[in-house]
C-alpha cells in the first residue's frame, strides 16, 4: 500500500527521524514542513533518510492561524508533484504509530474506498458564541504567543456592545490601530460554504479523494483563503468543510472517523495529553493507527515501549 505522509514539524528533528524510520516500509514517501521559526540547519539530518523531502516552502506557523493550513497545502502540493499515489496522511512531528506497518497497510487496503477525518456540523462542535466568532467575526493574531488573538465583529455590522468592546481593546492596547482601522471598513463576512464542518486537524485521504480535494482547492484558492485567513483555528474547519462538500456531490467519497488518537479528556494536565511511559495500556486499547502527542524531551521511554510492545 503506497502512502504519502505529510509531516508538520517545529521541534525535535531526532524524534521526527525516529517517526519516519518507524513508518518507512519501502512504500511510503515523507514530506516535511519545517516551521519558519525553527532552525532549518537542525533539520537537515532528515535529508539522509530515504524517500524523505524537506519541502522548500516554509510558513511561520502560529497557533490558531491560517498559516497552519497554508503549511499543509504546501505539503499537499509537493506530494502531488512527486507522483502522489495511495493514501495521503497528515501527521505532526509529535505523532507516532501505535500499530505496525503491516497492520497499517492491511487496514488501509481493506478500507481503500474510505477517508478518515473527523467532520461534524460546526454547531455541534462548539458553543454558540464560539461558532459566531468563527463564522461571522474576523480573527486577528496579536503576536506569536499561543492564544494571543481575538475575533471581532466588523464595525459597520456590529452591535453597540461589540463596538464598545472594539474601542476598549484599542484604548487598552489589546488591538492595534491598524487592526481597528481595518475593522472599520471590513464587510460582513460571507462564509464560503453554507454549511461548515469541524473536527480534529489530522486526516488520511485515499488517492481519488486527494485528487478531488487538490483540484477543488486550486480552483477556489483565492476565495477560500480570503475567508479562512480570518477564521480562528481554520485547520479544524478548512479541510473538514471541503471534504463534506465534495462528499455531498460525489458518491465516491466515503468518510470514517480520524485514525489519529488524541486524548483531550484527562483532568489536571495540559491538553492534549503528552503521553509518557505510564500510558502504554491506554494506547494499546484504542483502535487507531497513529497517536499524538509525544515529546522525547519529556518522555522517550513511551516510544521504546510502543516499539517493543505494540509494533
TrEMBL record:
Pfam families in alphabetical order: Branch
Recorded GO MF terms: metal ion binding; protein xylosyltransferase activity
Entry's Gene Ontology BP terms: chondroitin sulfate proteoglycan biosynthetic process; heparan sulfate proteoglycan biosynthetic process
Coarse class of the protein's main subcellular location: endoplasmic reticulum
Taxonomic source organism: Kaistella haifensis DSM 19056
The protein's name: Peptide O-xylosyltransferase
Membrane topology: Single-pass type II membrane protein
Superkingdom field: Bacteria
Subcellular location: Endoplasmic reticulum membrane; Golgi apparatus membrane
Keyword field: Disulfide bond, Endoplasmic reticulum, Glycoprotein, Glycosyltransferase, Golgi apparatus, Membrane, Metal-binding, Signal-anchor, Transferase, Transmembrane, Transmembrane helix
Keyword Ribosomal protein in record: no
Amino acid at each position: 500500500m503506497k502512502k504519502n505522509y505529510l509531516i508538520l514539524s517545529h521541534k525535535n528533528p531526532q524524534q521526527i527521524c525516529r517517526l519516519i524510520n518507524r513508518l518507512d516500509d519501502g512504500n511510503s514517501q515523507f514530506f516535511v514542513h519545517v516551521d519558519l521559526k525553527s532552525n532549518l540547519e537542525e533539520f537537515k539530518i532528515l535529508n539522509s533518510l530515504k524517500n524523505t523531502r524537506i519541502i522548500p516552502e516554509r510558513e511561520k506557523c502560529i497557533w490558531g492561524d491560517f498559516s497552519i493550513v497554508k503549511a499543509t497545502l504546501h505539503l499537499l502540493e509537493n506530494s502531488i508533484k512527486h507522483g502522489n499515489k495511495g493514501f495521503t496522511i497528515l501527521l505532526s512531528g509529535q505523532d507516532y504509530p501505535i500499530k505496525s506497518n503491516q497492520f497499517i497497510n492491511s487496514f488501509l487496503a481493506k478500507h481503500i474506498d474510505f477517508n478518515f477525518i473527523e467532520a461534524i456540523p460546526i454547531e455541534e462542535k462548539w458553543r454558540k458564541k464560539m461558532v459566531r466568532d468563527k463564522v461571522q467575526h474576523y480573527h486577528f493574531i496579536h503576536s506569536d504567543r499561543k492564544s494571543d488573538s481575538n475575533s471581532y465583529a466588523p464595525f459597520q455590522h456590529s452591535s453597540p456592545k461589540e463596538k464598545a468592546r472594539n474601542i476598549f481593546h484599542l484604548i487598552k492596547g489589546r488591538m492595534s490601530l491598524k487592526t481597528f482601522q481595518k475593522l472599520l471598513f471590513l464587510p460582513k463576512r460571507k462564509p464560503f460554504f453554507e454549511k461548515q464542518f469541524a473536527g480534529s486537524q489530522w486526516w488520511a485521504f485515499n488517492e481519488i479523494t486527494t485528487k478531488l480535494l487538490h483540484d477543488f482547492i486550486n480552483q477556489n484558492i483565492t476565495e477560500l483563503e480570503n475567508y479562512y485567513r480570518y477564521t480562528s483555528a481554520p485547520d479544524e474547519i478548512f479541510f473538514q468543510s471541503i471534504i463534506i462538500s465534495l462528499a455531498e456531490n460525489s458518491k465516491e467519497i466515503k468518510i470514517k472517523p480520524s485514525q489519529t488518537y488524541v486524548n483531550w479528556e484527562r483532568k489536571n494536565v495540559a491538553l492534549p495529553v503528552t503521553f509518557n511511559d505510564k500510558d502504554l495500556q491506554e494506547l494499546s486499547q484504542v483502535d487507531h493507527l497513529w497517536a499524538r502527542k509525544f515529546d522525547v524531551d519529556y518522555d522517550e521511554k513511551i516510544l521504546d515501549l510502543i516499539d517493543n510492545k505494540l509494533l
